[in-house]
Amino acid sequence: MRAYLGIPYAAPPVGNLRWKPPQRPRPWTTTLDATKYGNYCPQNADLGVFGRPGGAEDCLNLNVFVSKKASQSKKKLPVLVWIHGGSMWVGANRDYDARKLAMDGETVVVTINYRLGLLGYFAHPSLDGEGHPFANYGLMDQQLALDWVQRNISAFGGDPGDVTVAGESSGGANVLAHVVSPQSAGKFQHAIAMSGAVIATKFPAFAAPRPLDFAERKGTDFAKAAGCENGGAECLRNLPLDKVLALQTPYLHKQVIIDGNIIPMQPSESLKSGKFNRVTLIDGNTRDEGSFFAAFPENVSAAPLTAEDYPRRLETLIGSPALTQQVLKEYPLDEYSNPSEAFSAALTDMAFACPGRAINRWVFDKTPTYAYEFADRTAPSYLEPTTFAMGAAHTFELAYLFPGFHGGAGEPVELNRLQAKLSAKMVNYWSTAGLAAEREAEWPRYTPEQDDYMSLTLPGPRMTSKSFDDVHDCGFWDKTGIY
């Protein structure tokens, strides 16, 4: 495999370029040393071992991977651009080993960094009034990286007319943000949104897109805490990076901001109304998404979720006391082995499975749509041990695409022989999104009548029909108005 590492796709977003749209980098005239990863973007340990604290603001770089054999082909190769997850707070392109997708998938893989935390998703009246696009700086970084791919990927053997943008968790949400963003039109032809459907939920739900007025209030509160209450944009841009990181956690956004331009409206409304970019859409989730979010607090506190804490934790996620009471009746503790399993089931269905199914139902007749669920409940974990079975948890499918995936600081995992066979099939699916229409005998397009999902499970993938609703209680969530 050939790997080209740390290629700058934008100028360093520092000084006067902090909290401004990314700019193209200064051209270089000598050979660029692309043998080492570039800086990763600044972050704290907000998601435990998923990220790695540290980083530098000069982080807008990407990596390109292509197999030597494939690069010698006369035919241009499909391209997969990977957007990492991490709640838009943490993560790095260096955490994803692209060798299987590049070599077995015969695909040119591009992994990108983008601004995170408040440096990437931030609104403040003094910045927002400067006359440039604002708030979703991390998403704008990704758009510039996609422009770089369009201009340059053919030099690496890639086909700019066969580009798949893919990502997981907040990376999957960003993929769907590109599907609805007018500024992303024409930059890619296929999209794989992995566990990103929470972008369809409505504020104040967990990880729903933030209204601009709310984001600006948060930004104003941050400025006050940082001593910039009266200093405006200049004061904010002059803040030391260490101070931004030390203060940002209470003011972070878990999602994109509805700024009226880059994200013109609530994404669910864009998808319902047909105001989105027509691309092949592969959209899915893991069977037990929520167990990941039960595991992190348990790892930190060394104590499992209690029955007394269950309602409070639910209300924090849902944002509505009245709806929380309905959910407690729908997911009663006496139907589960422990509170963590009840919490996991409710979060899985509310934030991932059912909004994902709703997205598929909104767009199936407007763009080619294929649904999946990663359901290998034997998947290995890179987290600390937990008191409950995690199953097919959020992020656990990543090791099937990126060998040994362990976040920024977790324990590397290995797949057994059966899991390796499933991994090979997933690598094939992910690297050939452009051929989805040609394999519809194996993986049919989604229709609401059949509610057909590709179940990525052992001993091998299989189609399921008319069962997803029953497994995830989507009939209940569809009536709540949460998406």
Task: Set out the fold topology.
Elements: E1 2-8, E2 61-66, H1 68-71, E3 77-83, H2 99-103, E4 108-112, H3 117-120, E5 121-122, H4 125-128, E6 135-136, H5 137-152, E7 158-168, H6 170-180, E8 190-194, E9 210-211, H7 212-225, H8 232-237, H9 241-248, E10 257-258, H10 267-273, E11 280-286, H11 291-301, H12 309-318, H13 321-330, H14 339-363, E12 369-374, H15 417-431, E13 453-456, E14 462-464, H16 468-472, H17 474-478
Parallel strand pairs: 3-4, 3-7, 7-8, 8-11, 9-10, 11-12, 12-13
Antiparallel strand pairs: 1-2, 2-4, 5-6, 13-14
Helix pairs in contact: 11-14, 12-13, 12-14
Describe this structure in words.
- The protein is of the alpha/beta class and 483 residues long.
- The chain has one domain (2-222, 252-288, 347-379, 392-478): Rossmann fold (3-Layer(aba) Sandwich), CATH 3.40.50.
- It is 33% helix and 14% strand.
- The protein is built from 17 helices and 14 strands.
- The protein has helices at residues 68-71, 99-103, 117-120, 125-128, 137-152, 170-180, 212-225, 232-237, 241-248, 267-273, 291-301, 309-318, 321-330, 339-363, 417-431, 468-472, 474-478, and strands at residues 2-8, 61-66, 77-83, 108-112, 121-122, 135-136, 158-168, 190-194, 210-211, 257-258, 280-286, 369-374, 453-456, 462-464.
- The strands form 3 sheets. A 10-stranded mixed sheet has the order 1-2-4-3-7-8-11-12-13-14, sandwiched between helices.
- Strand 12, helix 15 (417-431) and strand 13 (453-456) form a beta-alpha-beta unit.
- The longest helix is centred in the C-terminal third of the chain and has 25 residues, at 339-363.
